[in-house]
Each structure stands twice: as structure tokens, then as C-alpha cells.
TrEMBL record:
Entry keywords, A to Z: 4Fe-4S, DNA damage, DNA repair, Endonuclease, Glycosidase, Hydrolase, Iron, Iron-sulfur, Lyase, Metal-binding, Nuclease
Protein name as catalogued: DNA-(apurinic or apyrimidinic site) lyase
Record's keyword annotation contains Cell membrane: no
GO cellular component: nucleus
Enzyme class: lyase
SUPFAM superfamilies, sorted: DNA-glycosylase
GO biological process: base-excision repair, AP site formation; nucleotide-excision repair
Domain of life: Eukaryota
SMART domains associated with the record: ENDO3c
Residue ranges of every copy of the HhH-GPD domain listed in the record: 46-144
GO MF: 4 iron, 4 sulfur cluster binding; class I DNA-(apurinic or apyrimidinic site) endonuclease activity; DNA binding; metal ion binding; oxidized pyrimidine nucleobase lesion DNA N-glycosylase activity
Enzyme Commission number, as recorded: 4.2.99.18
């Protein structure tokens, strides 16, 4: 209880980078729900091993190019890499983003899966990302 109170006190100001630039702030809130959910998933994929400031900047650049399933499928790997650089492991993330986006288009009509079990089957998506996607994209607490 004492530790929890200390954490609450430290977080009272909400002044950490994650508060202003975390995944929950990286998507276009005015986009259609399906596009918003896709953007949430991509921001989670980019965020792994990457500082919030870098993820936020990469997402902004992607959104300036029209961040949708179709726009990513039409984009060549080199361009996608240039846009997301310098996120951590950007070369692998280009591959995972393209593979995941193709699966979303084929299997889910361009939307993201509604379950953690299906989300973790996507290339580059782990359990933590899946639970966060459920919370942010689907407004469903699934385990965190």
C-alpha cells in the first residue's frame, strides 16, 4: 500500500513523456473507428524498444502520408523505412508492419482483431501490445 501511494504521488502531475506522446495520443482521433484502431496498433508496434518522443514523431510523419491500411499496402518498403526511422529496429518493423497490414486487409477487412489471441498471431505483435490494443482501440480491459 505504501508503494502504491508513492507511485500515485509521483504520477499525480502526469508530466512524463508517455502522458503527452504515448500510444494513446498517437492516433488520429477524428479518423473513422477502423482507421483509428489500425493507427493504435501501428503505434504500438513502433513503440517497442523506442522512446515515446520518437514513436510520436514517426506516427505524425505516417499520418501526414495518410495512415490507412491501403496507404501502407501501396507504400514501398524503402519509403516506409524512411518515414519511421529512427524507431528502434525499424528494418524489422517495416517487414512486420507490411505483413500485419496485409493480414488485416485479407482476414479482417482492414480492421484489427477483437481478441488478444488473434492480435498476438500478427507479426510483430506481442502480448503486452495486444492487451494495450484491446484497451485503447476496443475500450476493453483484457488483462493489464
Amino acid at each position: 500500500r505504501e508503494q502504491l501511494e508513492r507511485i500515485r504521488e509521483m504520477r499525480r502531475k502526469r508530466d512524463a513523456p508517455v502522458d503527452d506522446m504515448g500510444v494513446q495520443k498517437c492516433y488520429d482521433s477524428s479518423a473513422p473507428p477502423q482507421v483509428m484502431r489500425y493507427q493504435v496498433l501501428l503505434s504500438l508496434m513502433l513503440s517497442s524498444q523506442t522512446k515515446d518522443q520518437v514513436t510520436s514523431a514517426a506516427m505524425l510523419r505516417l499520418r501526414q502520408h495518410g495512415l490507412t491500411v491501403d496507404s501502407i499496402l501501396q507504400m514501398d518498403d524503402a519509403t516506409l523505412g524512411q518515414i519511421i526511422y529512427p524507431v528502434g529496429f525499424w528494418r524489422n518493423k517495416v517487414k512486420y508492419i507490411k505483413q500485419t497490414t496485409a493480414i488485416l486487409k485479407q482476414k479482417y477487412g482492414g480492421d484489427i482483431p477483437r481478441t488478444v489471441e488473434e492480435l498476438v498471431q500478427l507479426p510483430g505483435v506481442g502480448p503486452k501490445m495486444a492487451h494495450l490494443a484491446m484497451n485503447i482501440a476496443w475500450d476493453s480491459v483484457s488483462g493489464i
